[in-house]
Amino acid sequence: MEFEQLKQTCLACQKCGLCETRTNVVFGMGNPQAEVMIIGEAPGRSEDEQGLPFVGRSGQLLDQYLRAIHLSRDKNVFITNIVKCRPPENRDPQPSEWDACIPYLREQFQIIRPKIVLCLGRIAAQRLIRPDFSVMREHGQWVEKDGVFFTATLHPAALLRSPSNKPLSYADFVAVREKIEEICTHTYD
Ligand code: URA
Ligand code: SF4
């Protein structure tokens, strides 16, 4: 219920200028009881049109990787973004827009209380793990904060541009599977 209220507040949000150009707010989707959260950067065109995260080409690739480690947005993960509205022309979100939007992510964390957080790409990793985090150098490493295990991998859009990096990212998903087996209680029921 609390989650539904947060969603309704977010869907009506006008806290930053992105509200003027968005079609739909992309709150996130998946199981609010999930032990695993996946965080991207910001909605793209398809996400803005449908109001759902990762439903374009990078989303299809993400779903392939998730399926490979027995995760599904219909069942045992929650997927969202740092910024909930699409930046025009897919420019990077600006720090003022992150700052306006990140309280929603913080509340999502507090309600879902994930055990594992997978950051997709630099923006999420630098915002959630460390400001100077290098995805190319440090992807797949685990950082524990207050009992929550954070890791990052290459953004699926980057993998579509540089397919030769796919094995690197796949290995990170396998590491997520192993961490789930180690610390989660109901993800693989
Ligand atoms: N890229 C992102 O970072 N998030 C989405 O939801 C879609 C593409
Ligand atoms: Fe509100 Fe976030 Fe959308 Fe800005 S990006 S209008 S803060 S929901």
Structural class: alpha/beta
Integer average pLDDT: 97
Q: State the major sheet.
A: 6 strands, mixed
Task: Give the percentage of residues in beta strands.
Answer: 5-15%
Give a count of the beta strands, DSSP E runs of length 2 or more.
6
Small-molecule components bound:
uracil, iron/sulfur cluster
Radius of gyration: 15 Å
- What order do the strands of the largest sheet run in, or round the barrel if closed? 1-3-2-4-6-5
Give the CA-CA distance, first to last residue: 24 Å
Low-confidence stretches: none
Q: What fraction, in percent, of the residue positions are helical?
A: 40-55%
Tally of DSSP helical segments: 8
Query: What is the approximate shape?
Result: globular
Order of helices and strands: HEEHHEHEHHEEHH
Short descriptors:
189 residues, alpha/beta, six-stranded mixed beta sheet, 8 helices, 6 strands, binds uracil, binds iron/sulfur cluster
Describe this structure in words.
This protein is α/β, with parallel strands linked by helices and 189 residues long. 43% of the residues lie in helices and 13% in strands. The chain is built from 8 helices and 6 strands. The protein has helices spanning 2-11, 45-50, 57-68, 95-112, 122-128, 135-138, 156-161, 166-183, and strands at residues 29-30, 36-40, 78-81, 116-120, 143-145, 148-153. The protein has a 6-stranded mixed β-sheet. α1 (2-11) runs antiparallel to α4. The radius of gyration is 15 Å and the shape is globular. The protein starts with a helix and ends in a 6-residue tail after the last helix. The model has no long low-confidence stretch (mean pLDDT 97). Iron/sulfur cluster (SF4) binds at residues 10, 13-16, 18-19, 25, 83-85, 97, 100-101.
